[in-house]
Write a structure and sequence with these properties.
- With 380 residues, this protein is an alpha/beta fold.
- It has two domains: 8-177 and 362-378, Glycogen Phosphorylase B (Rossmann fold), CATH 3.40.50; 186-340, Glycogen Phosphorylase B (Rossmann fold).
- The chain is built from 15 helices and 13 strands.
- Helix 4 runs parallel beside helix 5 (138-149) and helix 7 crosses helix 11.
- The radius of gyration is 20 Å and the shape is globular.
Length: 380
């Protein structure tokens, strides 16, 4: 039960994309048990705006409804970020919170950090310190800039702390563990009872893989076409693959790759909710993805992962032999999958729990909320 206090801490959480809704969920839950009363207003930028990418996450994860929905939608990065910045700034000027919390590495993250920092409102960055060292990725630019704008940096791993130390930001950093690990620990069992996705898609555990493609560098018409052909080849050679298609990917497909058709074993679906994805991962042989979040969820649930990129910010998954880089051109995809067929996945029981694990002990959100209380008390 939350301790009552005369002090009310007023915070604003900026979110806009589905991974951020997942990260927000354990933090919002931990706020209910904070030693100070926290009034957190959620600002949804609308970066992910259709129900399958947004509304379903608030419902499944029981996140409080946004106080504001900026309704920005998609568009060129400069215009999208500028519209977010304008809308967030107006809300912050009206509410003047004690702190602004941003999550991850999207345009919503950067816009929230910029708006708050320019108004001299402390910024807290959840999932700070990640680096792919590829400045061609918009996400890399967003997270580097956000870290340098933030007053407190919540680092999920020791590697993230090392990166922040190298950039002279160690004094602002706190090693908390990963809030996405908190979320998987909380929702993995819920997914097995509430999700019916295996029955709906007529799938059996151990008889399929999962694929997702959505990053900007992988969804140019040329690169996406190459990866889609590689997925077709993988489905033909290694068995059924479930392919929940991101709206960005679907848009490129409809406008520039109209001739492409999925192989018989490539099962294309629309975007899926969080519980459905957790249920699929628990029953899959492997995951193919360019998503940072899905790399970790596969790791947490003991499912081998092949990452469709040339590098990853989640180096811990590669070091532990659970994640294999296949590049962004699909050339090494079949080779990596062939290797995985000789290394069967471990039986799923529960997400791995270890106090000395690379992603913490499942209590990252509680540490973050405690640090937020400290931050607001020190800035009356």
């Amino acid at each position: 039960m939350r301790m009552e206090s005369a002090r009310v801490v007023r915070t604003v959480s900026i979110v806009g994309a589905r991974p951020q809704f997942v990260k927000l969920s354990p933090v919002a839950r931990a706020m209910q048990h904070a030693r100070l009363r926290i009034d957190d207003r959620i600002v949804h930028t609308g970066q992910h705006y259709d129900d399958a990418m947004s509304k379903i996450f608030f419902e499944e994860l029981e996140i409080p409804q946004p106080a504001v929905n900026c309704g920005v939608g998609s568009g060129p990065q400069g215009r999208q970020t500028a519209r977010m910045l304008e809308s967030i700034e107006a809300h912050l000027l009206e509410t003047r919170p004690d702190a602004v919390i941003v999550y991850g590495d999207t345009n919503s993250t950067l816009a929230g950090a910029l708006a708050a920092a320019k108004l001299h409102i402390p910024v807290a960055h959840v999932e700070a310190g990640l680096r792919s060292f590829n400045r061609r990725m918009p996400e890399e630019l967003n997270r580097v800039a956000t870290d340098h704008l933030s007053e407190i940096l919540f680092a999920p791993t020791k590697t993230a702390i090392e990166n922040l130390t190298t950039e002279g930001l160690r004094a602002r950093a706190l090693l908390t563990g990963d809030v996405m690990y908190d979320a998987v620990l909380f929702y993995a069992q819920v997914a097995t009872t509430r999700s019916s996705i295996l029955r709906e898609l007529e799938l059996s555990r151990g008889e399929y893989g999962i694929a997702t493609i959505h990053r900007a560098e992988n969804t140019t018409p040329r690169d996406l076409g190459t990866l889609l052909d590689a997925l077709n080849d993988a489905a033909s050679r290694f068995g059924r693959i479930v392919f929940p298609m991101h709206p960005r990917t679907a848009t490129i497909l409809q406008s520039d790759l109209r001739e492409w058709r999925p192989a018989a074993n490539l099962m294309v679906t629309g975007p899926l909710g969080y519980l459905d994805m957790l249920s699929l991962i628990q029953g899959a042989n492997w995951v193919l993805t360019d998503s940072g979040g899905l790399q970790k969820e596969a790791f947490f649930l003991n499912c081998p992962c092949v990452t469709l990129r040339n590098e990853t910010e989640w180096v811990e998954t590669v070091r532990d032999g659970a994640n294999f880089l296949a590049g962004s051109d699909g050339a090494r995809l079949a080779e990596r999958l062939s290797e995985l067929t000789h290394h069967p996945r471990r039986t799923f029981e529960c997400a791995p729990i270890a106090d000395d694990g690379p992603f913490g002990d499942g209590h990252a959100a509680a540490r973050i909320v405690e640090a937020l209380c400290d931050l607001c008390e020190s800035n009356p």
